[in-house]
Amino acid sequence: MQDWLTAGRFKTYLRAAGNDTQRAFDLYQWNTAVNAALLHDFAHVEVALRNAIHRELSTLVQPSLTWLAAPTALTLFPVASTTNRAGLSYDANEWLRQRLAESRKKFKCSHTSNQLPPLQTGRIVADLTFGVWVELFSSRFEPTLWTHALRNAFAPGIARQDVYDRLLTLNEVRNRLAHHEPNLRKANKAHRELFWLLSVLDRDVQMHVRSHSRVATLLNSKP
Fold first, then answer.
1. Residue 156, helix vs strand vs coil
2. What is the pTM of this model?
3. Which residue has the higher pLDDT, 89 or 142?
């Protein structure tokens, strides 16, 4: 198995297992099972979140328009000049506009149209990465997107920062899951953050996911 995993990769599990080779193998198997179970739960969270965001951002534009279209996206995500740690100026919203533009191009949507057909709209929403949805909760959008729309997707009184902090953790863990990386230390936290997010987003979804989730059982059976 060490040849198949590579020594560098297996070293993480050996270290966690106190150099016990058999326990390291067991930890690898356990981590794989936990990752798969977390991905199952993430699937529900991500779909619920992106659909809620899409619903709320749609209230910021006229009924005949689509927030994903190029002209309206430029209004919602205008040029936002800021400075990085090196003192260089950049547009903080350029990345978001580029991601939207890439999805529109992928599904052959007109660059100048203010409206997109429902089929293309659904495809773009599904195509955007989890990182795009997370970015919409950054502090620069508090006076605009959060105050006028996104806060309505959550239980009353929930702070944007609390949502954003959880989403950052979940995004990091989700990326590790997608690349089959070890989550020996962060699986518990990710599991808690995931259900916190569902508790303030949609209790019905939370109950459904909890009733079908295998994560808690697996976490309790760690070798």
1. coil
2. 0.90
3. 142
